[in-house]
Amino acid sequence: MHGSGVINNMKRYRQILLLGLIALFVYLVFYGFPDSPSPWFDEGINLGIAKSWVKHGVYSLEIAPGEFVKERSLLITTNYPLLLWTALSFKIFGIGLWQAKIVMFAFLFVFAFLFYTLAKKYYGENNALASLAILITFLPFYGNGKSALGEIPGLTYFLGGLLLWENEKKWKVFLSGLLFGLAAATKSIYLIFVVSVFAGEFFSGTKFPLGNLVPKLKRVMVLSAGMAIPLLIWIYTLLPDNFTFDYLVKTWQLYRNPYNIESAALTNFLRFFMESTPIHFAFLFLASAWFLIWKPKNGENIKKVEIALAVFILLNLVFYLKTAGWYRYFFPAHILLFVLAPPALECIAGKFKNILITGLVAAQLAVLAVNIKQSLYYNPGPRRFAEAVNRAVPRGQGIFVFDLPEIVFLLNRDDVWHYLHANPHIAFGEDLLKTNRYPAYIISNSLPPGDKYGIKIDGGKYVLYERTK
């Protein structure tokens, strides 16, 4: 009786903890709706593409009335596995910010469910609850996940594929391949999902990596057939009307090194010893690496899923070292480490695991409480500025927007010209001022238009100028 009572108490405790985590998660997802976080540059591009798709039937970004970016592969880094759902929401509910946010909320809820299910399947309920607690109290999960970006949607498809992956039924293998293909097609960086999955297929379940090659190849063919469908659609969405070899080279150079940075690796590597978020990542990374190295030495096989996770995390880390250093570039690997961290800490620290995880979650809660109201995570300013512009500027007057795709989306009007630097080396649209054309209104945060204009609305980061001469 005493033993069953303890078991029932533990079960009740886990249920209460799970309900508490769900309640916190729901609150944080809906906190500050729809301005948490406010739309920003990359999100503005994604929302603009979905808007153009719905309004004009053109899968690209409108840069002037009736004119669209032709070199889509140089612009579109988040693709149809997210933008399709965003466009569908626009089609049903109208074009606007909240209509985009509800799509991301749906992905967040599905992702959290799949995340918990995967952790529970492979590491048990206690570790799954620990993983969920780390996830739900991690502030960047909401900063990145509530924005119309591809990180969480791609990971959602990936987790769905992992949950079906080890099943031997051909239709489930095919469906897992389809989900992996959708994951890879969501963002250009997520093409490394393909490498991760094939590594798991060939290097798991046997001491000799290529043992049982024929059955593996048959399974891989079914898996590849599933992957091929969304990836072929992805390629089709990026092809220009006039495809050339030079265009292919230019696209490859962009994907290989988007910011044309050649000497950032050391600087980015040192961040993992000097800055809080990379240090957080490094702690979980080292614990998880030790766990995966220890398993075979202790006579345990590394699971197929673990190989895929490890390869993706490593490749994502390598990619990050070549970038401009923004934490968002290793965010996907960071999130996936939360699956491995609790069993890793259990392996390393034994009964002290719960103390370590409680301390980690408490620290994350403190960071969340201090920062959740900062402008990075909640800012109605861009939406209110766009509403003020729409009221102040009569339709048809013409507005030139300099490098602010989020404002172009929020304006939601047809008399807008847009000059856009997609990155420091690629620009789209036309800078009207350099061609001595002076529209009635200009919106900028960094380009004083000279003596021909005066300030009409000062929105701080965003300023509306009106032509006076």
Automatic annotation (TrEMBL):
Q: Which InterPro entries match?
A: LipidA_mod_glycosyltrf_83
Entry keywords, A to Z: Cell membrane, Glycosyltransferase, Membrane, Transferase, Transmembrane, Transmembrane helix
Q: Which GO terms describe its molecular function?
A: pentosyltransferase activity
Claim: Glycoprotein is one of the keywords in the record: no
The terms describing its cellular component in GO are:
plasma membrane
- Localization (cell): Cell membrane
UniProt entry tagged with the keyword Cell membrane: yes
Spans traversing the lipid bilayer? 16-33, 92-116, 128-145, 173-199, 220-239, 277-293, 305-323
This protein's source sits in the domain of life called: Bacteria
Grouped into one coarse class, the protein's main location is membrane
Q: Per its record, how is this protein called by name?
A: Uncharacterized protein
Q: Tell me the organism's taxonomic lineage.
A: Bacteria, Candidatus Giovannoniibacteriota
